[in-house]
Amino acid sequence: MLKVNRMATFRVPYPRDPEKRQALFEKANSKLSGHGTMEGTPETGTFHGSTIIGRFAGSYRALEDTDEMEIEIHKKPFLVTMGMIEHEAKKIAAEALV
What domain range is 39 assigned to? Predict the structure, then answer.
């Protein structure tokens, strides 16, 4: 079994409505496409990629009966803080929900 190193976990707003959820999922996938890939569904999956300062990887899952998604970061560039990652994820969610 593959051991996953969990660096940090945080939650972002995520709509329960399936159409809004799909729209947010597609927006996040589009943003990520320049640096990596996302594998999964709007409900659960993984992502990974790289930038000029390092590689990143993680997983996500919609939390049942909530308006939130939980994101686990497994790998990140040394120079990027968890706060920066969480801020960017929340920004993408907020833009898509407008």
Answer: 8-96
